[in-house]
Write a structure and sequence with these properties.
heterodimer, A: alpha+beta, DNA polymerase, domain 1, 6 helices, globular, B: Aldehyde Oxidoreductase, domain 4, 3 domains, 27% helix
Chain lengths: 155, 726
């Protein structure tokens, strides 16, 4: 039995403690936005926030988490796709196949939370997510665009 | 350009209307609103391509698969252009391959490969839109009791010009569905296009930003179980035995099943449980005839082909061998290109439900019809008792087109659990080891120069693997695989872009027992490296500028010359680059488009490569959506440069050694160059977009590396090469 807080709600899951967070989200809670791709914490397709930190959910077990920790998935990033990163991504048509994009968006959102106006080097260092379709240049533009939207939102 | 009227046959009419009543009341199980074409409550279709709802929503049917390349949007633009509908009301749906079969293939091919999505169907999908438009106008004219010729349509509104009366498509769609289609329609002259050529937004972005987009790996059906599978890692090996008792009592485990003769699967309540049990399952393999195979043995096979007496001739003019003998100077080089995995972000998967009466499969596929055939074969049922529901792909790149091994496995599992839907999802490790790999080849090139440094003869000998021999022998010609010669052929979609006075291009086929497949770009990847790097070698041997050397050989290929000139101009070829930055060029014709690139790189003393910028030009004839073309060009560079930098599958003990992204890396954002895309459609033909530019990225970068370091790299990937100036 694992107790977690996911997208603001306390949940109890009848799973083995060694179950990765990714599979608990996908198979117990039906939150399939975080994707399985490598399973070894390399590609970033499963990126979620744990207490605001971009974290690769495939290598975090549910047993290592407590209900005091706040897990946020792409489904909980905004109610209606209105997070500045999502808006920027929509403006620039960033996704191609889209499979890596929930992870990419979650990594970008966490970056902007800690660094409201990241440089290209900051983006390089904080978005080491694999995209085989090759959306990287639009991802970069998307992060810069989200900075602008974020500032507007705060005016 | 005048457009000929198109005469519709009676047969097309019958097929096109047969389903207006019954064809879509098939009682399909529809897991999502955006899923397969459907539902009895849906209003009648105007024709196979167009359904219009009373609220004016336009549903455009798309036969090809969306896997990121934007074809859903591009094909919709083609239909909507002729339909004259309100673009803001357009949505899409996939008909199923079973429906296509039942309607005598009214939607044509479902195959989504070879950069064919647009260029292979532009004509009939535009026709579909035009026919629907004419029927809608006619329905309005009939309702008003006025001649159809006095009415016209724009933006989903039909206007009777004399009276100014208007109505909307949604109001007349039901009446239009009852009409005979016109016998002739005339497609618009391209100069009158309003939507084709516009950088409209994709139709499928929103759900990809919120996690709502369902991929095959995400699918859930009521009562569904989950499976993880392991096939014999050795190519050609078999499953010998497994000890079910060791895992049968683990949490959630429902079954441990033999799958065909080479794999074992664990079926459990959740995939994590299934995979956890599979990891603990003792399995023994019969490694079969290839248990000793390794990369060195494959290399020896290919080296033998470089000088073997017999080879297929793919392109020949003049007498290359005589020209080389008489040359003032000859240049010779041998290049080698490795196996590579597609490594789609979403591993292979399929969900199947089998009963003795019917088998249904939900899967990401680049070819719904091929998936249906695979389903029927594995199900032991006729095609008419099967169907496939296509789901968006988490990447395709060729892996999910010609091969439906994952579908056959899912059906083979479901067949052992009748009535229960089972989702099979491969691990990344399974995906890495059971690919259909980019074929392995080597190439020996010999060029002859006269005393003025002009190219007088060229002999290109490719040695290595044929895709068609393994995948589709029916497409071979007298044993020859013409695909092997992509970009080196005398004419067609992959014509050689140069006129060489004495030319001989050959292929010595050598087929190691590692399954090859179509891999984004197919054989243009290595062939363009071979040819364009060697062209650079020849230019340097002749003491000439690589651009000028090429230009001289391209007088008969003005479109190819135009794209080359465009990148040279925009990149500033001949003018100084920033300090430490060097340039390289490449050009070719691939998938019917002319493409060129100029790369700018620097290499520091320690050999670290930085790709700063690539200027790329494409002449696709007609450009449907420029912003999506830009996205495809950039994406093709990531795929092609990932291959150049890192892509290599090596073989040991008959198996692929790589297992995951740790030993099969992909480019990341910090390695991504700026890309400047020039789109220069010259009209009169339809070329592909998804693949062509992948061909020119790697050779342009390699030629720039030579300019920077004086090192000519001829074996790949670059991760194995020391570029330092020690």
């Amino acid at each position: 039995m694992a107790k977690l807080k996911v997208n603001g709600e306390a949940v109890e899951l009848d799973v083995d403690d060694t179950t990765p967070l990714l599979w608990a989200l996908r198979e117990q809670l039906g939150l399939t936005g975080a994707k399985y791709s490598c399973g070894i914490g390399l590609c970033g397709a499963c990126t979620v926030h744990i207490d605001g930190q971009a974290t690769r959910a495939c290598v975090v077990t549910v047993g290592s988490l407590s209900e005091a920790q706040n897990v946020v998935t792409i489904e909980g990033l905004s109610a209606d796709g209105s997070h500045p990163v999502q808006q920027a991504w929509a403006e620039l048509d960033v996704p191609q196949c889209g499979y890596c994009q929930p992870g990419m968006i979650m990594a970008a959102a966490a970056l902007l939370d800690s660094n409201p106006d990241p440089s290209d080097a900051d983006i390089d260092a904080n978005l080491p997510n694999i995209c085989r379709c090759g959306t990287y240049n639009r991802v970069r533009r998307g992060v810069h665009r989200a900075v602008v939207l974020n500032k507007r939102g705060k005016v | 350009m005048a457009t000929e009227p198109i005469t519709l046959t009676r047969r097309e009419f019958l097929i096109g209307t047969a389903a207006a009543g019954a064809g879509f009341s098939l009682g399909l199980y529809l897991p999502f609103a955006s899923g397969p074409a459907a539902a009895a409550e849906q209003p009648p279709e105007v024709n196979a391509w167009v359904v219009i709802q009373p609220d004016d929503t336009v549903i455009i049917r798309i036969a090809r698969s969306e896997m990121g390349q934007g074809t859903l949007t591009g094909l919709s633009q083609l239909v909507a252009e002729e339909l004259e509908c309100d673009w803001s009301k357009v949505t899409t749906e996939y008909p199923t391959p079973g429906q296509n079969l039942a309607r005598d293939r009214v939607w044509g091919s479902f195959s989504t490969g070879g950069s064919q999505g647009i260029r292979g169907s532009h004509d009939y999908v535009r026709k579909g839109g035009a026919v629907a438009r004419e029927m809608l106008i006619e329905a309005a004219a009939e309702a008003w009791g006025v001649p159809k010729a006095e009415c016209s349509a724009a933006n989903s509104v039909i206007t009777h010009r004399a009276s100014g009366r208007t109505t909307t498509y949604g109001k007349v769609a039901a009446a239009a569905a009852e009409l005979f289609p016109p016998e002739q329609v005339t497609l618009k002259d391209p100069k009158d296009w309003k939507l084709i050529g516009k950088p409209v937004k994709r139709l499928d972005t929103r759900d990809k930003l919120t996690g709502k987009q369902v991929f095959g790996a995400d699918l859930t059906l009521p009562g569904m179980l989950n499976a993880s599978i392991r096939a014999c890692p050795t190519f050609g090996g078999k499953l010998k035995a497994f000890d079910e008792s060791k895992v049968r009592s683990l949490p959630g485990v429902r079954a441990v099943l033999r799958v065909d003769d080479d794999a074992v699967a664990v079926v459990a309540d959740t995939w994590w449980q299934a995979n956890t049990a599979l990891d603990k399952l003792p399995v023994t393999w019969d490694k079969g005839p290839n248990a000793q195979l390794d990369s060195a043995a494959i290399e020896r096979m290919l080296e033998d082909g470089l000088t073997a007496a017999e080879a297929f001739v793919g392109n020949e003019n003049g007498d290359a061998k005589a020209a080389l003998k008489g040359a003032a100077k000859t240049v010779e080089a041998v290049y080698a290109y490795p196996y590579q995995n597609h490594a789609t972000m979403e591993p292979m998967n399929a969900t199947a439900r089998w009963t003795p009466e019917r088998c249904e499969v939900w899967c990401p596929t680049q070819n719904g019809e091929a998936a249906l055939e695979a389903t029927a074969e594995a199900a032991g049922l006729p095609l008419t008792k099967c169907d496939v529901y296509k789901i968006h792909l988490g990447g395709g790149f060729g892996r999910r087109g010609a091969f439906h091994d994952f579908v056959k496995q899912a059906v083979a599992i479901a067949r052992q659990l009748p009535g229960t839907p089972v989702k099979l999802l491969w691990t990344r490790e399974e995906d890495m080891q059971h690919g259909h790999y980019h074929p392995i080849t080597q190439c020996r090139l010999v060029g002859g120069l006269d005393d003025k440094g002009e190219l007088t003869g060229l002999h290109v000998r490719i040695s290595g693997q044929s895709i068609l021999a393994s995948v589709n022998p029916k497409w071979m010609k007298n044993g020859m695989d013409t695909f092997t010669f992509q970009c080196l052929l005398p004419d067609g979609d992959h014509a050689f872009s140069y006129a060489v006075p004495n030319l001989l291009v050959e292929h010595a086929m050598r087929n190691p027992p590692v399954p090859p497949g179509f891999w984004r770009g197919v054989n243009v990847n290595q062939n363009t490296i071979y040819m364009e790097c060697f062209m650079d070698e020849l230019a340097h041997a002749a003491g000439k500028d690589p651009l000028e050397f090429r230009r001289k050989l391209m007088a008969k290929h003005p479109r190819a010359l135009a794209v080359l000139n465009a990148v040279a101009d925009k990149a500033g070829w001949g003018k100084p680059a920033a300090e430490g930055v060097h340039r390289g060029l490449a050009v070719c014709k691939a998938f019917a488009s002319h493409v060129a690139a100029c790369a700018e790189v620097s290499v520091d003393a320690k050999g670290r490569l930085k790709i700063h910028r690539i200027v790329a030009a494409t002449d696709p004839g007609h450009a449907v959506n420029p912003q999506q073309i830009e996205a495809q060009v950039e994406g093709s560079f990531v795929y092609g440069l990932s291959a150049l930098l890192y892509g290599e599958c090596t073989i040991k003990d008959g198996a692929v050694q790589q297992t995951n992204f740790n030993d099969y890396p992909s480019m990341l954002i910090d390695e991504m160059p700026e890309v400047e895309t020039i789109i220069m459609p010259s009209g009169g033909f339809w070329g592909g977009i998804g693949e062509p530019t992948i061909a020119v990225a790697a050779p342009a970068v390699l030629n720039a590396i030579f300019a920077a370091t004086g090192k000519r790299v001829r074996r790949f990937p670059l991760k194995n090469v020391d570029l330092s100036s020690a």
